[in-house]
Structure formats: C-alpha cells, structure tokens
Write a structure and sequence with these properties.
The chain is of the alpha+beta class. The protein has helices spanning 35-44, 188-191, 262-266, 281-302; strands at residues 2-7, 13-15, 53-57, 62-65, 69-78, 87-89, 94-96, 100-110, 144-146, 173-178, 194-196, 204-208, 223-224, 229-231, 239-241, 248-249, 253-257, 273-278.
C-alpha cells in the first residue's frame, strides 16, 4: 500500500531503534529520540518493536492511505487521533496530526511497518550523513511511502495500562548516574532548574540556566559518549546528548541520564525545564528491568487483541 505525504509536518523522519553495533566506526546510534514511545506504538499495531515508524517534531504530518490499515500514535499529543491505541484508517482515509499540544515529538506506527531499505542494519534516518529512512532525509510534501498490506484486526474494546507510559512533563526530574568528571563541579547541577534552548536538536538537548564552573582545568582526553551523557562545554551550559550524538567527546562529563528517563528528555521543547536527581547504577539497572518487564507484559497482553 501507499502512504502519500500531503503535508510533511516538521522534521518528519522514518526511525526505528537505531543503528546499533557501529559506534566503534564512528557511526551514531540514531533511531527514535523517544525509543519507548516507538516500541509501544509498534506493539499496538502488531509489529516487532523495532519496525520502522515515523517521528515528527512540534507539527505532525498529513497523510493519505491507499488501503485500509491500522495505525497507532504515541509520544506527544498531536491532533485529534487518540494516543496509545490502535486506530483503523479506511482506504482513501486522510490523517492530519497538526501542531503539538503537549510534549515535543510524536510517533506513528503502521501495521507491517514502513518499507524502507536498511542501511548498516537499520531503517533509521541519520540526517547529517543522509543515510537511512526515506532517501536519507526528512519527508517533504508529495513524498510517497510504502507499507505491506496487512490484514490485521483489533479484537474488542480495550486500552493499555497507563502505568507503562513515561511520566511526560514540561518540567520533569530526570534521574542520572555519576559522570566521570562530576566531582569537578559544584552542587548547582542538582539544585537548580535548567531550561531547554531553541538550539536543541536530535544530536543534543542544550540547556540554559546557571553556568557550571569546573574546578579542575586539566585537559581531557576524548572519551566515549552515548545518548544520555551530559557534557559541560567551556561556557558551562550542559548538553544532554541524544540519538544522533557523536561517539566520542572531549568535554567533561558531569552525569548520564538513565535509559528509562531519556523519553522524558526527548519530549522537552524549547522553554520547558528539567531538574536532575542522582541515583546509583544499581537503581538505574533495576528501573530498566522493571520497564522491560512491563513491556513484556504488554506484548503478551496484546497477543489476543490483534489478529
């Protein structure tokens, strides 16, 4: 089936869970900024969690579907489409997602997944290298995407347990573990609120607020960074590295946002605020395991709800 992009929205790209296994060669992970949202919407239409879906920022796309299908939308709130549930779209149906109401990024999955060619094992779009997704770029008006025609039906009326969803907020508290250079900074990182800069992008969420002064002035050797690493450049304004982040960096690392709270950061838009709370590595692991257990229960619960 064909999906015609009538209006592309803002930075609408095809994403999956990223290009894992190539960081040693300098290839960023890419993939969804909010990987939990992508996983859940894929499960809601009967797809594998890593199927290719659409990610859009602040304004969603307008799409037209050539055949009947099932979609699910999650993440930020866009348009009138109900969140976190499968929705049947008829042949010839049009879907307009419009401007975001809460959050920053939305995700749309379609039964069968969007059919784009994998690059280095992933269908995610990495814009800086122009690879993956649809021609390595954000969607434009008039683009035509493809998806397999899948005969899938929703059984009964139901909704998922909201406790599985991230606690999205325009002012969240993001939990972090200790960074390699954390001791070289004062307490302001944990006591003050930071606002999100308009200069933020898929590479990093740039923060404004108190300037973090580093006590040690020794030059650092570049070291590994990952999505969630919080770097402090010379101007003292922290940067939370995200999906398209580089693989090594030379700025001091004050902390790392834990995996389960990266969705909270992904849904921050310019002007939103964030605070930080330190947890141990053991606590971060337990929180991640608990999240994976909830996803496993969702997967099992949906087995009889989609046929």
């Amino acid at each position: 089936m064909e999906i015609t992009v009538t209006r592309a929205g803002m930075l609408t790209t095809v994403q999956d869970l990223g290009r894992a296994g190539h960081r040693a060669a300098g290839v960023p992970l890419s993939g969804a900024m909010d990987p939990l949202a992508l996983r859940i919407v894929n499960l809601l239409v009967g797809n594998p969690e890593n199927a290719a879906a659409l990610e859009f920022t602040l304004r969603g796309p307008e799409l037209e579907f050539s055949a009947e299908t099932i979609i699910a939308v999650g993440g930020g709130e866009f348009g009138a489409v109900p969140l976190w549930q499968p929705v049947t779209v008829p042949a010839g149906g049009r879907l307009a997602l419009g401007a975001v109401r809460t959050g920053c990024r939305g995700y749309l999955a379609i039964a069968g997944g969007f059919a784009v060619a994998p690059v280095l094992g992933s269908r995610s779009t990495f814009l800086r290298a122009a690879i993956g997704g649809h021609e390595g770029r954000a969607l434009r008006d008039g683009d035509v995407l493809h998806a397999p025609t899948v005969a899938r039906h929703v059984v009964g009326r139901w909704h998922i347990d909201e406790r599985i969803l991230p606690a999205y907020s325009p002012a969240p508290v993001a939990r972090v573990v200790h960074g390699a250079q954390a001791e070289e900074f004062g307490a302001a990182f944990f006591t003050e609120a930071f606002s999100v800069s308009p200069k933020s992008d898929r590479m990093g969420v740039r923060l404004m607020g108190p300037s973090l002064a580093r006590a040690g002035m020794a030059e650092l050797i570049s070291s590994t960074v990952v999505p969630g690493t919080v770097q402090v450049p010379p101007d003292g304004r922290p940067i939370i590295l995200m999906a398209d982040a580089q693989t090594i960096g030379g700025y001091p690392q004050i902390a790392h946002v834990i995996s389960v709270d990266l969705p909270l950061v992904a849904q921050l838009k310019p002007g939103d605020t964030v605070r930080f709370h330190e947890v141990t590595l053991a606590e971060a692991h337990e929180l991640l395991l608990a999240c994976e257990r909830r996803l496993g229960m969702l997967h099992e619960g949906l087995a009889q709800k989609l046929r």
